[in-house]
Design a protein that fits this description.
It contains twelve helices and six strands. Helices cover about 40% and strands about 15% of the residues. The chain has two domains: about 210 residues, Hypothetical protein, domain 2 (Endonuclease III, domain 1, Orthogonal Bundle); about 120 residues, Nucleoside Triphosphate Pyrophosphohydrolase.
Length: about 350
């Protein structure tokens, strides 16, 4: 693009009038708040993130406060936000910043990327937004804008390096923080995946895709069909109305969160009862629980039993389950079993 300076000025002028009001956007950005918001916004929409962000900063207003928090408390507050590895990385990252950096966020991208959970995008976003230092921020919105501006025929994800080079050619050296956020806002409100509002776009005159169909960009490779896995979940109660729960291993999917015992999650589930955590008369519960992760669909069949004698394990009263960090998948199980209880008593 020949006139990149004019492009930046047109975009920034639009941003000053139309920028979104968000709780993490302040006149003097705080690297801690910027970091928390950017981690939460990964794979999650802005309306969903706002209340979580406000509760998180209310609970741990400084990185030193987060560093002292227990992982269980962090996971509990994160409950329902999904992608729990983000919460574990936040906790680990806080400890590393306090221990290795004296509680001060580094502004250098290389240093930022040594921290747990911080990759290319998050490091660039923190550097540009929190420190107002030039950096090439690339998220899905910005990739889409670049693909349309320059009608990039190469499909994603192989086009990422091409799109980044175009973004580099347009990046602002003077107002990098505002510029990055302006592109994000443009992509979320005007240059949307479907039905983009090209007629009111402040950079329409620079966009080559307006001569074609903007919705054709960015090009994407055909998605592979994701597999479906199955498992049996074991709901065990004792005579005092307590339920058997367990903490999932720290590493892996839903790591460190609470759940109920299950058989292995497999594409074909066979003889699942051999994985029952205790001996008992296991009876099937009507219906199934379904949940979709990034790389597969999961279906739970539930079986239940009542234990009449003392058994090892962590047993919790049903009304106290709310005090534990259960992911959305396990929340669905709790809700389903409450519906089962109500149906049994005719409530």
């Amino acid at each position: 693009m020949q006139n990149s300076i004019q492009f930046q000025e047109d975009l920034l002028k639009w941003y000053q009038t139309h920028k979104r009001t968000l709780p993490w956007r302040v006149d003097n950005p705080n690297p801690y708040a910027t970091w928390v918001s950017e981690i939460m916004l990964q794979q999650t929409t802005v309306p969903t993130v706002i209340p979580y962000f406000q509760r998180f900063l209310g609970q741990w207003p400084r990185i030193q406060d987060l560093e002292k928090a227990s992982l269980d408390d962090v996971l509990h507050l994160w409950q329902g936000l999904g992608y729990y590895s983000r919460a574990r990385n936040l906790h680990q990252c806080a400890k590393k910043i306090v221990t290795d950096f004296g509680g001060v966020f580094p502004s250098d991208e290389k240093a930022l990327k040594t921290l747990p959970g911080i990759g290319d995008y998050t490091a660039a976003a923190i550097r540009s937004i929190a420190f107002n230092k030039a950096s090439v921020v690339m998220d899905g919105n910005i990739e889409r804008i670049m693909a349309r501006l320059f009608v990039v025929k190469e499909p994603l994800p192989s086009a990422k390096s091409i799109l980044k080079s175009y973004a580099q050619s347009l990046s602002s050296q003077i107002y990098p923080g505002d510029y990055a956020q302006a592109l994000m806002d443009l992509g979320s409100s005007i240059c949307t995946p479907n039905n983009p509002s090209c007629s009111i776009c402040p950079i329409q005159k620079y966009c080559k895709a307006t001569e074609e169909n903007p919705e054709d960009y960015p090009k994407k490779q055909m998605k592979k069909k994701i597999p479906r896995k199955h498992a049996t979940l074991f709901w065990a109660e004792d005579l005092n109305g307590r339920v058997l729960i367990e903490k999932r291993p720290a590493k892996g999917l839903l790591g460190g969160l609470m759940g109920f015992p299950t058989s292995p999650w497999e594409e074909v589930s066979d003889d699942a009862l051999k994985f029952a955590p205790i001996e008992g008369k296991w009876m099937p519960v009507d219906g199934t629980i379904t949940h979709t992760f990034t790389h597969f669909h999961l279906t739970f069949s539930i079986v239940r039993t009542v234990v009449e004698h003392k058994t090892e394990g962590v047993w919790v009263k049903k009304e106290d389950l709310v005090h534990y960090a259960f992911p959305t998948l396990m929340q669905k199980v709790i809700q389903r079993m409450e519906e089962e209880r109500r149906a049994a008593i005719g409530a």
